[in-house]
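To assess whether the prediction recovers the assembly geometry, we first specified each molecular entity separately, as shown.
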Amino acid sequence: MNSYFGFGRIIVTVIMAMCLRIAPWPGFLTGMNPDWVLLVLIYWSIAVPERVGIFHAWTIGLLVDVLTGRVFGQYALAYSLVIYACLMLHKRLRQFPLPQQGLFIFFCLLFTQILLFWLKNIQHPAQLHSSFWLPIVTGTFCWPLIYTALRRVRLSRRT
Amino acid sequence: MAIIASVALLITEHRSHRLDSLRATLSVLVDPLKYLVDLPTGLIAQTADSVRSYSALKKENTQLRDEQFIDKTRLLKFDSLEKENIRLRALLENSFKLGEQLLIAELLSINTAPYENIVVVNKGTRFGVHPQQPVLDANGVVGQVFRALPFSSEIMLITDPNHAIPVQVNRNGLLTIAVGSGQLNRLNLPFLPNNADIRPGDLLITSGLGGTFPSGYPVAVVDDFTPMTNKPFVNITATPKAMLDRNRELLIVWSDSSPVSLTTPSTSSEKKPGASEGEQPETAAGSGLTRKASAGAGPGTDRDE
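The predicted structure of the complete assembly is given in tokenized form:
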């Protein structure tokens, strides 16, 4: 339907999400910074599944690995798995009302976080803070925001 | 496919350093983002600087001039002390390490990993920075370079839970290891026996063991503690001297690991600046970010503190 829909917007939004990801937040907000990049990727994979594939998710995950100084492949693995699920379910997810989508997003973020923690724990035993789970909650609450914002970005092209 | 590729990457990275070049290449793509995010903070600081009042600037200027005067006078004495130290060590037939080169790096105000005490600075391998270099600020040891990318490098603070630094008590030379606690204002000293000669308020300095940190830099001050007679080890904490949560400028140190020959102390002090310049070729000629860098590579800084 939108075959002319360019990569431009997707790339710009992903770059903005990466900036948000590493932005310094004041005080107590630091621990709550959600995974913006994943949220944006999820949106695009549901909205334009023919444009965002697992390979893109993997590449962006790799860039996030470099950006945040993690072990290579950590975010790449997590992102490609989540985006795979989104691509499989995108037709159903589009029909869901926002709260139900939020629930799905919650489980996606939870899965990512558990996977990341598990990978970290393999390298060297890590401690688990209770605040480790905060980004999942904030991410879920940010979903409607991202959904409406990116929807506007997507539809503004189609006049 | 993607899963196999990621797992392969994870394993390779975990086992070896072969992927460092790939990381460096990719980081060229992402590093502009770090500078972009840092931009607002830098702009705010700059605007605040430019609208400061004349009297405040003048006051600061006077204060700085006084400080510089005092420091210079101290350095005069330090020079002769250094020579004397080399001579005395020559008498003891002991080798003496010196010759350190400093580079001023600025902190990028970005936050990559909320649960780790890792910061990012704006100097990378382009300026000759390499992993495991010690990083200082005006008050003490900050940490060490954890990963050097072309345009930025990640610095692990001494308070990171995965970081340990060999220290000694300045008062009596007692050696121990300070382990990071995860909190920015605390270090743990877990390996001290109950009867160790250590008191609250003792200054801990780097011992130079382990080879990463040059010896003699202040690290932390021992906090109050209560001896526990029922346990073999006391639980002692210390507060880092460096302003880990406040500073924007950091010093990256090149320590010249080759000991100075002691038979001719006069030539050894002349060899020092040349050796350290050779180690860091690009600083003065580097592009873009040279304002700070050239200040750091000026003639005043190639003597050690």
